[in-house]
Design goal:
Layout lengths: L7 E3 L6 H11 L25 E5 L15 E5 L26 H10 L7 H9 L25 E2 L3 E2 L29 E7 L13 E5 L18 E5 L7 E2 L3 E3 L5
Parallel strand pairs: 6-9
Antiparallel strand pairs: 1-10, 2-3, 4-5, 6-7, 7-8
């Protein structure tokens, strides 16, 4: 589907832990994952989820069927952007990694603070493609010459990773070479929020008022599993959702030429 988009700016990098910490220090912002959910807004949610916390990926000890993400996603009380794996974990060695465990509202608040906004889905995809018409922005192969060019899962998901035996799974926001537009990690590393309501048919009305499009795939995307490390891939998330592989980058408008 073709759409027209106006000129816009997009940050070269996803927002890092360092940048998000500066925002929190300046504003006192408390993220969604640091608050206990409101029962009135989530009447059907299991009792175990009524705690401040977030969903954390945990590698399985052996191969498992891939039909139930609950085998590797666990709600961890105390998990948030400061403590990515929960109490006892911290940002040591990860200040230049993308911030995670942030909801759409958290991302919007950061963007507003710096005088920016979140990108729309079409803007994000255009930027990720960087003019390419191939399956991936860099060509037709995920790893040309078996050389990694993005932070995606290498190995047998979700129990064996060729790069590491456990977290952190994210990498610095400037890892790998930028695309033709100079943007880093548009594919892999972390899913990124857009400000576009999700609809299965792009031209249809949104499926649900609380669902928004995320783009780019993450370090958990694997050839044996989701393969969502393509510019056109998309996933719906509730605006209050927080995960250990979900972050964002900011966009801005460009004033028309005089």
């Amino acid at each position: 589907m073709e759409v027209d988009i106006a000129s816009f700016r997009l940050d070269r990098f996803a927002v890092s832990n360092t940048a998000f910490a500066a925002f929190v220090d300046a504003t006192g912002h408390v993220t969604t994952a640091e608050k206990v959910p409101d029962r009135d807004l989530h009447p059907n949610m299991p009792d175990a989820f009524f705690a401040a916390g977030s969903l954390v990926f945990v590698m399985t000890p052996a191969p498992v069927a891939l039909d139930d993400p609950g085998r590797w996603w666990h709600f961890v009380p105390g998990a948030n952007w400061r403590h990515p794996e929960g109490p006892g974990s911290d940002l040591g060695g990860r200040w230049d990694h993308p911030v995670v465990h942030v909801s759409l509202d958290d991302a919007r608040a950061y963007a507003a603070f710096i005088g920016a906004r979140l990108p729309g889905e079409a803007e994000w995809e255009h930027a990720a493609r960087a003019g390419a018409t191939t399956r991936f922005p860099w060509g037709g192969e995920l790893e040309p010459g078996e050389r990694p060019v993005a932070n995606v899962w290498r190995g047998d998901f979700p129990w064996r990773h060729e790069r590491c035996a456990g977290p952190p799974f994210t990498m610095p926001v400037d890892a790998f070479a930028p695309n033709a537009f100079g943007l880093c990690n548009m594919i892999g590393n972390v899913w990124e929020w857009t400000d576009t309501p999700f609809a299965r048919n792009h031209r249809a009305a949104p499926d649900h008022a609380e669902l928004y499009v995320t783009k780019g795939g993450s370090h958990l995307c694997a050839a044996s599993y989701c393969q969502r490390y393509r510019p056109e891939a998309r996933m719906a998330q509730a605006r209050s959702a927080t995960f250990s592989h979900l972050g964002f980058r900011c966009a801005g408008d460009v004033a028309p030429s005089a």
